[in-house]
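At your convenience, could you comment on the folded chain following this short note?
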Amino acid sequence: MPSAASGEARAASGPEGYADLPLFYYPGYRAVSADGGQLPVIRSEDGLARVLFAGEARGEIHVFYRERRLWRLCEIISVGTLALFAVLFMRGGGKKKGKFILRPRPSDVML
């Protein structure tokens, strides 16, 4: 489920306006205007998410973040690995008595 943030877009004096959001930019941010149109989200000079819109535009914009598929796959692999370690730990995971005790070989014992 994507997380969401909302902000108000104000008219700019030029043909295009923008709104800098108090969010660090990451690929995956999406913006939608109140009428359902997609708005471009770019990185500002300060590293924040910037939404571009037409200069005469007024209204509400909705900004949300959707993870990339690769990130979701990495999360699944991490959770699977953690579950595997938990199962191995619960089974005793190779912790048997005497398994790692060093015993001298008869040829190594000096008489």
